[in-house]
Amino acid sequence: MSPRRAAALRGGEQSLREHLIATAERLIRERGTAGLTVRLIAREAGVADGVLYNHFADKEELLACALRARVRAVESGLGDLPGAGTATVEENLRAYIVYGMRLHAGILPAFAGLVGQPAVLARFADPGGGGGRPGGDWRDRLLAYLRDERELGRLAPDARIEAAARMIVGVCHEAVTSTFVHGYARPAQPPGDDEVGDLVAAVLDGIAPGRRPGRRPGRRPDRQ
C-alpha cells in the first residue's frame, strides 16, 4: 500500500510516520513488545515492510517512539498531580503514590519484553530523542513537589526529601514488578487505602521512636 493511500484510509489526520508510531503503540498495548516485528507492524499499518525505513533509521527507533507514545497514553488517563500548598501534605502524597503505582502498572508490560533488546531501551532513554527513564517525569515531579513543600514550611527544613522520594518510587516499582518477577498471571492490583496510608505515615513520621523526621545520627541533613 502506498503512503498516499495509507493516509487516505486515515482521513488525512496523521502523517504516515505518526500512523506507524500509533500502530506500533497499539500493538504494544495489546500484545506487549516481545516478538514485535517490522513485518507485523507494517502489516497492521497497511504498508509494505520497507516503508518503515523511509521514516525511521531502524526498528529500534520506531519501537522507542512507540514506547514514548505508550507512556504518554498511560499518563493522559491518570489525571493531574497536586501542587505544593494545596490540600494537605498527606492527601497530596497519597495522590502521588496512587498515580505512581498506576503509571508503573500501565507501562511495565511494555518494557518487560525488552530485557534482551538494550538498543531499544537506549533509544528510549536518549534525551535527544525525547525519551527518559520509565516514569521519570513522575519521579521528578514528586521530588519537585517535596522541595516546594519544604520551601513553604509544610515539611521540616532539614527533611531528607531525596530519601523520601526514593522510598516512594521504590515501593511503586516493587508493587508492580513483583507480579512479573514471580510470574503471576494476574495484572498488578491497584493500591489499597491502608497500603498507601502506611507508606505516607512511614515517610512523614519516620519509623524510629523519638527521632525527628529527616534526621539520622551522625549524618548531616540534605542540602538541596
TrEMBL record:
Kindly give the InterPro entries that the UniProt entry links to this protein.
Answer: Homeodomain-like_sf, HTH-type_TetR-like_transc_reg, HTH_TetR, Tet_transcr_reg_TetR-rel_C_sf
* UniProt keyword annotation of Transcription regulation present: yes
Which Pfam families did the record assign?
Answer: TetR_N
Which residue ranges carry the DNA-binding annotation?
37-56
Which residue numbers delimit the HTH tetR-type domain?
Answer: 14-74
Record key words, sorted:
DNA-binding, Transcription, Transcription regulation
User: Which residue windows are transmembrane per the record?
Assistant: none
Coiled-coil stretches are none
Q: Does the keyword Nucleotide-binding apply?
A: no
State what protein this is by name.
Answer: TetR/AcrR family transcriptional regulator
